[in-house]
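JOB MANIFEST
job_type = single_chain_structure
chain_count = 1
residues = 158
[input]
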Amino acid sequence: MQKYILSVIVQNNAGVLARVSSLFGRRGYNIDSLTVSATTDPKISRMSIIVQGDEPILEQIIKQLLKLEEVMRVDHLEEADSCCSELVFVKLHAESGSVRDDIRQLCSLYDAHIVETSENAMIVELSDVPSRIDAFLDVVSNFEVIEMSRSGVTAIQK
């Protein structure tokens, strides 16, 4: 299954988020990530939605979204042809000095930042494209992950 980024321009009406998310639920499609933000026009919002599937599922999702009255436009964004970013915080168990050094080295490789340290843990922050966040999380899983929080993607076409 492939991940797809959709940029959905909607009217900024009460309940539009519920209608969009229920559309996915009714058809059995899972939303991996969903962010909603204002645009320069207060009457319009932008949704960035990450979904998994194949090409026919993507086409079906786009067709169903366009049937909603409040949806004005749906664009499938390629990561390489858009500006997209996601934020992740990962709290890692890190009591020993060698583990802390390994985490610092990993942060240096990925341009991640250590935002908090305590006696037995470190919180790491990374803001990047989704594929790089996924790669970072794969590598960081070699450590003891206490908890993780991922923001969701915000994207715009170049």
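[summary]
The chain is about 30% helix and 45% strand.
Helices lie at 16-26, 55-67, 97-110, 130-140.
exit_status = 0
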